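User: I'll paste a sequence; please echo it back and then give the predicted structure.

Assistant: Echoing your sequence first, then the prediction.
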Amino acid sequence: MTLLMRDRENQKIGEIRGKIYETISMGRDYNIPEKEILTRLQRKFDLTEEQARTYLKEAE
């Protein structure tokens, strides 16, 4: 893997994480229950429940 390939992969991961945190923030802004936010994260970003819970906890 070249440095350029690694940088692009890291950028892609960063963009996805940004979208995840944006989804959490918007869900909270609209008073969507955390259980529903978890479900949406799992479905939209193909996450396990544990991964979704981790992101939700980090976003506090």
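The CA atoms of residues 43 and 54 lie 15 Å apart. DSSP finds three helices and no strands in the chain.
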